[in-house]
Amino acid sequence: xxxxxxxxxxxxxxxxxxxxxxxxxxxxxxxxxxxxxxxxxxxxxxxxxxxxxxxxxxxxxxxxxxxxxxxxxxxxxxxxxxxxxxxxxxxxxxxxxxxxxxxxxxxxxxxxxxxxxxxxxxxxxxxxxxxxxxxxxxxxxxxxxxxxxxxxxxxxxxxxxxxxxxxxxxxxxxxxxxxxxxxxxxxxxxxxxxxxxxxxxxxxxxxxxxxxxxxxxxxxxxxxxxxxxxxxxxxxxxxxxxxxxxxxxxxx
Amino acid sequence: xxxxxxxxxxxxxxxxxxxxxxxxxxxxxxxxxxxxxxxxxxxxxxxxxxxxxxxxxxxxxxxxxxxxxxxxxxxxxxxxxxxxxxxxxxxxxxxxxxxxxxxxxxxxxxxxxxxxxxxxxxxxxxxxxxxxxxxxxxxxxxxxxxxxxxxxxxxxxxxxxxxxxxxxxxxxxxxxxxxxxxxxxxxxxxxxxxxxxxxxxxxxxxxxxxxxxxxxxxxxxxxxxxxxxxxxxxxxxxxxxxxxxxxxxxxxxxxxxxxxxxxxxxxxx
Lengths: 252, 269
Description:
By secondary structure, chain A is an alpha+beta fold. Chain A has 3 helices and 9 strands. Chain A has a single domain, classed as Ribosomal Protein S5, domain 2 (2-Layer Sandwich), CATH 3.30.230.70.
């Protein structure tokens, strides 16, 4: 006899596999010189002017663009850009109280804003605001810390650029970003997180590789490291750009 | 190239500094700039078990008139913390094999006209260089027998943090570099910041540029019409200029501390 005190489900139910191990495996990369394979799609949020979704390894990023929207107040002859980045509360990060944006979220938002301000033709949008919201939906199981933030930021910039294109906002060029890790033994590893010198470079490839975003962190051994890491990051940004180009051409 | 105040490209602005004036802190410093910028930094210490602490330095930045969660405050705090965690000589803070000092660095920017990261960083340098810590009188080896560290009651016995280890004590600093066309300027003034093509914030430690190295827009409003991208050459030249001249900054600040110690009248005005 069934227990009548319990609300039992209908007979044809099934148990969701919550927390079950994901058996799908990612294909190993050819070498340290190529970026990881990524899945990218756009126009997924209907009420946003532009949106995109990117999966790379265990990172899942979503970007939404609202605007250009009119602003109240005094006349401004150029548009302004605001960027907000938020990790889902289940992603652990250093020094976050989950109520306000943490230091890492602020740093990412400010880097993305610097890159976008240089690429968007703000003169075309007077008295307007372009609001970008970035959500990091998933990250590594052990959370986000300083050794992973550059790699995550590189993919956030790439994802946001596609959302900007999706919104139809006029840009000088699509910004793409590359990241390189210089290990303690001096080896360059593209698109890899870890301890060592981390170089993050955002460029506009069609404008003579103009550098719109630069962020180097971690331990370094000298100026040569900086130049090599920057050159390697620029190469990755170009590779990502050609991938984004082919995606956008297919998408049309 | 001529700068509005006729400085050389590598020349920093004049500043006035005072150290060791907060009686309740282990170290303190204040810097006032000619453009009205003013920053006070206090360094306080606490004895902690190293194994239980993730960081031996905690930084807090407060800028007058700005919310603690504003972009400017959080970015300066993030950059300063990253710089200190990467380049600070933590060996100076070790007391015994188990215990260490933990430093709490509180920075208050009372007023600022230009981007205040270098102002905060230089004041932090002065406060750390003049930080005094009580003299340890117990054993330094507590590996076999656990013992709480005990200190001399006499403050006259206290030692400068700079003298706590044999290595040269030079806390790292952050430098602001402006890029306009092919020109590179160190420590741009408020007027220069409004017309910069781009700006780079770079760490400097052990006579060389260190991380973090980041670019940003220093102008008041984010829709600065002058703001442009950088090229590889500008970044390399900026690093080279810092490597060449910023070592002298440490010497100037150390001289300033020596002069200030000769001029102790208990007043900061």
